[in-house]
Amino acid sequence: MLRTLYIENVAVIQRATLPLEAGLNVLTGETGAGKSILIGAVNAILGNRTSKDMVRQGADRALISALFEELSPAVAARAEEMGYDCPDGSLLIVREIGRDGRNTCKIGGRPANVSILKELGQLLINVHGQHDSQQLLDEKSHIRVLDTYGQLEPLLERYQAQYVKVRDLKRTIADLEARRSERERQIDLLSYQIGEITEADPAPGEDLVLEEQINKAKYAELIAQNLQAAQDCLNGGEEGSGAIGLLQTAAQSLQNIREYLPATGAVGDKLTALLYELQEHAADLSALSGGPDADAYVDIDFLENRLATLQQLEKKYGATLDEVLAYRDDCQRQLEALAGSDEEIVSLKEQMRDELRAATDLAQQLSAKRKKAGERFSAAICRELAFLNMSGVTFVTEVISEPKLHRDGMDAVRFLISANVGEAPKSISKIASGGELSRIMLAIKNILAEKDQIDTLIFDEIDTGVSGSAAQKIGQKLKETAASHQIICVTHSASLAAYGGNHLLISKHSDGVSTFTDIRPLGEEDRVRELARIISGDAVSGVSLQNAREMLTRAQGGVDNRTANG
């Protein structure tokens, strides 16, 4: 529970400590004394948005600290998971707001950020302000209230996870189908390119072979003349001996005198070796000049057309025929992948049908449980309202199921009321007054408090729009709820304030230059005077004091035996 709230330099509050106790704590004071500032300070500790405008005039920063004690094991465990120790089940949260807009947050003396405050704060305090009653007018919020009451959040989370699967599959299928026409155009292009390359059926290096064959065919006569001339130079012809014959004669001549001039032997051997080498070159030239198909006809036009076809492929698909063939293989892989898209769509649709059946089953389970929970919820609210002087009001929880699934299932939930016996229930927004909204919300909060584990509940002017016995009943109901929760209630009602176990007075004064707000706990006599002030205004009379004393005695005597158990 919240044990102490310390506030420094927040609006008109220069420095104040709010000592709180278990049970029902009530805060009263004149209008403008600073009660709403306290609620704003609590919201700041809970990680809600703040403004630099809340810093007191003349101060550089505002500081708010909250000491929580007797933390529940679940809250302490979560805080420790987040890295913050809770010695003896206590936790200190501090937040500073600078005039420059900068925020500093600490939990247990260690740095934190606003998102951590918000996550932890949701486990520590539930604040119900005047605007919360207006949430009843938003029918979209009704389904969340019912799910909380029915403790359906785990089932809802399972459904929402399944719903996301179905939604994502639908989007994937729609995207694939939307791209079908583009995919078909791409398939046509790839098929054409693969067909063009396949029809030409190129072989690696074929273009180089063709170029050589074309050159040989084009210049066959020139090649033959020069080859013959080279052979004649080596082998000799009609006009005389060739180099081979002359070299053979020279080698034989040296051999003839070798006996008489041994030095010629070495030269002769070299000439003989050179002779053998020239004979090999002559054989190579003979092979180039002749062969079985040497005189065969070569179709140059065919070779040139074939080369042009291959060069066109290289221009379009790659610098070499190897690259052209690699491009065809890549196109084939792309084509196979695209062709498999239709199969993927069919497979995804089958998967989506299975996931949709699972989501529908969970939605139907949710719907059935909501309808049962709605009946219990309506009965509990009617009992609470009867106690709060609204016995003639009938509260109905309407659960409307439709086949189409949405994020919260297949249901729409509406809270309806009938203000008079015999009248058909209608939307709360059409017939509920401000005071009725406050009491309906109190009934809902009281019932939900039994379901949650949050120790501290804050009610900011829950008595708005009600007075007399209705306010008294609200006080009784809050005191009843305070048996299991710490309640902090800001009120303008003496009937409600009388039920508080701890009464804090918020007052303001001025020194002529600045305005200051003070907060102090009241003893019994001070409480009587404060209740009398609320009853009669500033002119407190003996009668109002007597009324206040009797009111306090009755309220502190115990909870009315007729209280509902909700």
List keywords for this structure.
alpha+beta, 19 helices, 55% helix, 566 residues
What does this protein structure show overall?
There is one protein chain. The chain is α+β, with helices and mostly antiparallel strands and 566 residues long. Helix content is 55%, strand content 19%. Strands 2-1-4-5-6-7 form a six-stranded antiparallel sheet, with helices on one face. A six-stranded mixed sheet has the order 8-14-15-3-16-17, sandwiched between helices. Strands 11-12-13 form a three-stranded antiparallel sheet. α10 packs antiparallel against α11. The longest helix is centred in the middle third of the chain and has 67 residues, at 321-387. The chain is elongated, with a radius of gyration of 50 Å.
Low-pLDDT residue intervals, each spanning 5 or more residues: 559-566
Can you tell me the overall shape?
Answer: elongated
Strand content: 15-25%
Strand order of the largest sheet: 2-1-4-5-6-7
Separate helix tally: 19
Quickly give the structural class. Answer: alpha+beta
Mean residue pLDDT: 85
Distance between the amino and carboxyl termini: 23 Å
Number of extended strands: 17
Main sheet specs: 6 strands, antiparallel
Helix content: 55-70%
Quick recap:
The chain is α+β, with helices and mostly antiparallel strands and 566 residues long. It has 19 helices and 17 strands. Helix content is 55%, strand content 19%.
